[in-house]
Specification:
Layout lengths: L1 E6 L11 H11 L3 E5 L8 H14 L2 E5 L11 H21 L3 E4 L9 H16 L2 H4 L4 E4 L11 H11 L4 E3 H7 L7 H15 L7 E5 L1 E5 L2 E6 L8 H10 L4 E5 L5 H13 L1
Parallel strand pairs: 1-2, 1-10, 2-3, 3-4, 4-5, 6-7, 7-10
Antiparallel strand pairs: 8-9
Helix pairs in contact: 1-2, 2-3, 3-4, 6-8
Bound molecules: zinc ion.
Amino acid sequence: MLRFACPGTPKSTPGSGGTLKGLKHAKSLGIDAMEIEWVQSVPKNAEHVADVGKAAKELGIALTVHAPYFINLNSEEKEKIVASEGRIIAALSMAQVCGAVSVCVHAAFNGKGDSKTVTESVRRSTERIMKQKTTLFPDVNLAYETMGKHSQWGTLDEALEIAKEFGIYPCIDTAHMHARTNGGMNTEKEWEELFDRYAKVLGKKSLKKMHLHYSGIAYGEKGEKHHLAFEESDADWKGFLRVLKRREIGGILVCESPAMEDDTLLLRKTYDRL
Ligand SMILES: [Zn+2]
């Protein structure tokens, strides 16, 4: 089963917004998943986070979380690595409190490092983070995201390598992969190969429980510029939906379009008609 998530509280939510109202409104629109955007900071009020989880459960809405942007596991300053690990652990712990299944993380900037050394930095931090798993986030997946800029760690192979080693699964952002390759990853053949590669590393069953991101995207030589609504982009989103359906991909696909719930529903309805 594949669910299509809106990126945070729908923009058409009446009143002052907030996650609780957003969940109810998402449900009324026919949306059955949401990625909670803790991109500035992780909330500290566990009681409120538990209420969000309870409401989501009652409404039948599955949750994922986006961890804060202020993370760099490859920083030259040790205290910044420690703070980054702390933010990741906080996001994972609060995700556990609200019953979110997976937390996506922008792991690192490459800086002067090559792929091998930066992957090593991510590996060392992941080892420390995963030591907390059984006590703080036993049911939550740590999903390193495939990233859109050349300056960022997170190619498919890098994310898969760490995922396999620690028994976790990455957040596959196919828009980022499209941007990073300056226009690649936009055909059914390429998406088929992507899922083949993913299944080869993480096992065939892993395709039934994925954390995916998708949107239109603007890009150039250095990769990602910014996200776009599908209508304004060159994304062959219908082709992508055909591959998702054909491969019976399961899990949660977060639609990260600036058109928010409009594009989430566009994907959902088109997918259902296929
Ligand atoms: Zn992201």
